[in-house]
Design a protein that fits this description.
mainly alpha; two-stranded antiparallel sheet; 2 strands
Length: 319
Amino acid sequence: MRERSGVGLGLALLSALTFATSGTFARSLIAGDWSAEAVVLARVGIAALVLAVPALLALRGRWPVLRRNAGTIVVFGLLGVAVAQACFFNAVRYLPVGVALLLEYLGIVLVVGWMWLVHGQRPRLLTVIGSLTALGGLAFVLDLTGAGRLDPIGVLWGLGAGVGLAGYYVIAGRVDAALPSVVMASCGMAIGALALALLGMARLLPLRADTADVTFAGHQVSWLVPIAGLSLIAAVVAYLAGVAGARLLGARLSSFVGLTEVMFAVLIAWLVLAELPTAVQLLGGALIVVGVALVRLDELRTPETVPPAPAEPALAGER
């Protein structure tokens, strides 16, 4: 059992690390005159195709399961994939990668408010303390009076990504246990890619791409390098490692470990892009992570009301 937990922990950390690379890969493309929406379209479109075969194998011809979850998959693809990623990649146009990710993770606090206002699930004391701590951290991250003041447009994009992430958590909590996670991911990414492509063709979204070389980690590289990193490392590898880790640790514990994505994102952006938030913003980031961790701990204390189904668990941190 201890060996199984160790493997699960390693896979969950691998998932967090690979997810954390997305902002750094995306920044090189956006700086090279790609629109954020085109970056998202390339990432989720390629990832959906790569995951299509594993998804078909996992579904094993159970098409009624897919049909009865069609509405959930569409909402997941539009909100949890297209909106969340487009807002996050637009945020990194204006903000350091780590700060944009911290704003996105405030979506966990938004879930608390949603469950209270809409479903009457009043949060317990630990969740309230965690939410207030995270909101206090937000004030430090914004650093409204200091030299590290953030671009308000980027902040709005980051908070929009938080809304998308909150939508993902709400949807993930209502997913049919008979629907394999890899099917949810592949179909959701396909829906998100289709929506972005249609909006782009209707000229409602800027789908701007360029085949010129881009600057990544201080070197000129082909645009295919960050595209491959985004779709294969930050999507396919990250998702599959996360699913395997969730199977071994459980969805709740693995999503708690997934909070290390923030730390990895800040470290990667520092090493590759020489981006580092100010001391005040790092303090605020630490408070946000502590606050979110308290909310997660409160969730871990909640007993399962329904025995876990034998189907693959939903991965609560996947984007």
